[in-house]
Amino acid sequence: MRGGICFLGKRHDKANNPYVAETYDEKKPCNYIVALDANNLYGYVMSQPLPIGNFSWLTPGEISDFNVFNYDQNSKVGFIIEIDLKCPKQLQLKTNDLPLTPEHLNITYDMLSPYSKRLCDKFNLKHVLPSKKLTPNFYPKKNYITHYLNLQFDIDEGMIVEKYHRILAFSQRPWLVEYIHFLITKKKRGKR
C-alpha cells in the first residue's frame, strides 16, 4: 500500500471536435476531451482475488524461471515482486503527465522546478521541506515492490525490468466478492 499520489497533471487542453461546430477546425487533427468519473473503486478492488494464505518466497531458481505473464488476474496464485526497473525515454514522453511506478520520495527544495521554487520563496514555504510524498517520477527504481498485475501493466507499457530480487507467492481467491455485492445491492435499495 502506498497511498494517494501527489503530482501536477495537465491542467489545460483544447479539443478539436467535429461535433462542436463553433470551435472545430477541419484543417487540424481531431482531438476530444472526455470527463470520466470512476465509482466504487474500493468495492471493485475488494471483489478481486486477494491473498488467503500459503505465503512462500520463490527460490533463486524459481525466480530465474519466473515469467509474470504466465499468471492472469484469476490465477489461484498471486505474487508480490521486488524488482529493479527503468523507464525508457519513449515511455517517458508517452507518460509525462502521469509517470508509472510512483514511489515515496523526500521532496527537497533542490528538486523543485524554477516555478515551484519561486512560489516557495514568495510564500515563505521553505519550512515545509523536505516533505515525504508519494510521487510519480522517471527515476530508476531500485528494490521497487509491486503486485504482479501492476508489473504486467508496466511491462506492457514499456517499462524494463533489470533485476528480480525477491518474489513472494500466495494463494488467492475473491473471498470478499459476495459480501461486496451484498453491500452494493443494499446501497442501491437504500433511501436517499
TrEMBL record:
Domain of life, per lineage: Eukaryota
SUPFAM superfamilies, alphabetized: DNA/RNA polymerases
Biological process (GO), any one: DNA biosynthetic process
Annotated protein name in UniProt: DNA-directed DNA polymerase
Organism: Trichonephila clavata (Joro spider)
